[in-house]
Design brief:
The chain is mainly α and about 240 residues long. The chain has a domain of about 120 residues. It is built from 9 helices and no strands. Helix 1 crosses helix 4, helix 1 crosses helix 6 and helix 7 packs across helix 8. Keywords: DNA-binding.
């Protein structure tokens, strides 16, 4: 097993058995069978290993994608992708439960994990054929991150092998997201003329500022003409 993958697996084994804050990088290295030098070469911190875990799950989900649902509605494609993500995480559920509990009150860690989640969900949405470009795309992306975090809260406590509660929560979040994006698209269409006017005014202001700077530069050159010291009085010292 490559060192990076071994380190991820080691961290998840340890996290399933002991509190997150008790796990040291030396413990992870020892569990993974790598030296601290090899650990440092692979990851800069314990938290970065969680990013490696997210990328590992991304890869599993993306490699398991098929074109069977290409003709299905967007809702169905997204539901399938996110359920496959939960399936891929299932072996690590005890570890994820402990980690989620430990980081719940740590704003800095949550902000870092949000960025990791944004990177992951960008690929999940792409796999479902959903664009994440432009302002509305970024809104969709952050919305899916938040929605999936809510679903994960249900999933972590869902012991039913059929995951009925989890699937119901995911379906609900996707439908709520659809309604929100429909309203956002309506607002975007209604405000399009105002945004165009604002952009035009902003461009006019930028042109005026550039013209004023050119005029100032010409004035400065005129003041320097015939002055062997130039325009900086300090040059005479």
């Amino acid at each position: 097993m490559p060192p990076r993958e071994a380190i991820v697996e080691a961290l998840m084994r340890l996290a399933a058995e002991q509190p997150w804050n008790d796990i040291e990088i030396a413990d992870i290295a020892r569990e993974a069978g790598v030296s601290l030098a090899e650990f440092r070469d692979a990851y800069p911190s314990k938290g970065a290993v969680l990013g490696g875990f997210a990328r590992m799950i991304d890869k599993q989900v993306l490699e398991g994608a098929s074109d069977d649902l290409d003709e299905e509605p967007t809702r169905e494609r997204l539901f399938d992708v996110l359920m496959r993500r939960l399936d891929a995480m299932d072996p690590y559920k005890p570890a994820l439960r402990r980690i989620a509990f430990a980081l719940r009150g740590d704003p800095l860690s949550l902000a870092a994990l949000n960025q990791v989640a944004l990177n992951s969900q960008r690929f999940m949405l792409a796999s479902a054929g959903i664009s994440t470009e432009g302002p509305l795309g970024r809104l969709k992306l952050q919305g899916v991150v938040i929605a999936f975090a809510r679903v994960m809260e249900v999933w972590l406590e869902d012991e039913d092998p059929a995951l009925a509660r989890t699937m119901a929560a995911l379906d609900r979040e996707i439908r709520n997201g659809e309604r929100f994006m429909e309203r956002a698209e309506d607002v975007r269409r209604l405000t399009a003329p105002f945004r165009a006017l604002a952009q035009s005014l902003a461009e006019g202001g930028r042109r005026r500022r550039r013209r004023d700077r050119r005029d100032d530069a010409r004035d400065d050159r005129n003041e320097d003409e015939g002055n062997p010291l130039g325009g900086d009085p300090a040059a005479a010292i």
